[in-house]
Amino acid sequence: MRSNKEVRDDIIEKLTTVVDPELNIDIVNLGLIYNVDLDEDGICLVEMTLTTMGCPLTNILADMVTRALRDIPEIKNVDVEFVWEPMWTTDRLSRYAKLALGIH
């Protein structure tokens, strides 16, 4: 049986495979993931945001997140919740994302 940390690390690693189709950078490095929680029943809650409110990619990204996590054996179901507070800013970008987007 894997530890909570191992499962969480696996979840984050899988989320790095979800690439924002507009920015071509993964959602983890974009700082879009606010929280990940896995309960005892195997329900994984992913709280995330988008770079702009009203982004047309909401359903597409939620589906991509669900597909990315489906191979993790501890996860029975994925619930993606979009949150708008705190508001996303470029301060949430990783160093990698800032370099890729030309932000200094």
Automatic annotation (TrEMBL):
SUPFAM superfamilies the record matches: Fe-S cluster assembly (FSCA) domain-like
Keyword terms: Plasmid
Origin: domain of life: Bacteria
Residue span, MIP18 family-like domain: 8-81
InterPro entries assigned to the protein according to its UniProt record, in alphabetical order: Fe-S_Maturation_MIP18, FSCA_dom_sf, MIP18-like
Pfam families: FeS_assembly_P
Protein name: MIP18 family-like domain-containing protein
Species the sequence originates in: Ligilactobacillus salivarius SMXD51
